[in-house]
Design goal:
- The protein is mainly alpha-helical.
- It is built from 14 helices and no strands.
- The protein starts with 20 loop residues before the first helix and ends in a 7-residue tail after the last helix.
């Protein structure tokens, strides 16, 4: 199961608080023009006076090393202050910090606590990550029903990682009744958002004719799209899969698949049929 463990930077930066709107707006403007030192200077007093959005933004800047030396301990401090005020995005990212052990001792129980608070406010990433904790039994007793519940809530909001996770459950048929058609549906939704693992698995659907008509061309197309991504783990597994399919294809089929992949990518995954 996939879990999002990279906090999005400054998701709250465009949400102006009612009080101190002018300094906040100035901080936003500075950040948007790349003047991160000024943004940091302006956000800091707002955060120190209890503005939850400014606290969240400071946490994100420290986490990402944006305009300041990267400092996970400072990031955790500011995220916590915002999270304790009920900011759902800060709760989610504080959960990620505990999940990975960044600036704090890794603690899945604390991760679950903060993910849940965020998830209950409807945060799709927190819902998916909470589902993974239940699936793996990390910080909570393993509970596949709870995992499925949170995956579904997240996937229904359009979150690609949760859609991928649902696809895996339908493909494996251990928790849900096996359904290649349902697996293909969820992999496709995630793949159309650029999720490389979903693109790879959709390619396998086409390779084996699971939930879709068998097609080496479509298999190569989706695996090629997956291989075009740069990930923290590299793209070798994607390119290896594509190359294995290519070995079964004619040069004309490969050319067709490459043209389809280029068209799909150029359309931002909106024209991939």
């Amino acid at each position: 199961m996939k879990k999002a463990l990279t906090a999005a930077v400054l998701l709250a930066v465009l949400v102006a608080p009612i009080a101190n709107a002018a300094p906040f707006d100035d901080a936003v403007a500075a950040f948007k023009r790349g003047d991160y030192a000024t943004a940091l200077t302006l956000f800091t007093p707002l955060a120190q006076h209890g503005n939850a959005i400014a606290q969240y933004n400071l946490g994100a800047m420290y986490l990402g090393g944006i305009g300041v030396t990267q400092n996970f301990t400072e990031a955790a401090k500011w995220y916590r202050l915002a999270a304790e005020q009920g900011n759902a995005t800060a709760q989610r990212d504080l959960g990620m910090i505990y999940d990975k052990g960044l600036g704090v001792t890794q603690n899945f129980t604390e991760a679950e606590k903060w993910y849940r608070l965020s998830a209950e406010q409807g945060n799709a990433i927190a819902q998916d990550n909470l589902g993974v904790l239940y699936f793996n039994g990390e910080g909570v007793p393993q509970n596949y029903d709870e995992a499925l519940k949170w995956y579904q809530l997240s996937a229904q909001q359009g979150y690609a990682s949760a859609q991928y996770n649902l696809g895996v459950l339908y493909l494996e048929g251990k928790i849900l009744p096996q359904s290649y058609a349902e697996a293909e549906k969820w992999f496709r939704l995630a793949a159309q958002q650029g999720d490389a693992d979903a693109q790879l698995n959709l390619g396998y659907n086409y390779l084996y004719g699971e939930g879709v008509p068998e097609s080496y061309v479509k298999a190569h197309m989706w695996m090629n799209l997956a291989a075009s991504h740069t990930t923290s783990h590299g793209n070798k597994k994607y390119s290896d899969a594509r190359n294995q399919v290519a070995a079964k294809m004619t040069p004309a089929q490969i050319a067709e698949a490459q043209a389809l992949a280029a068209k799909c990518q150029a359309s931002n995954y909106n024209n991939c049929d």
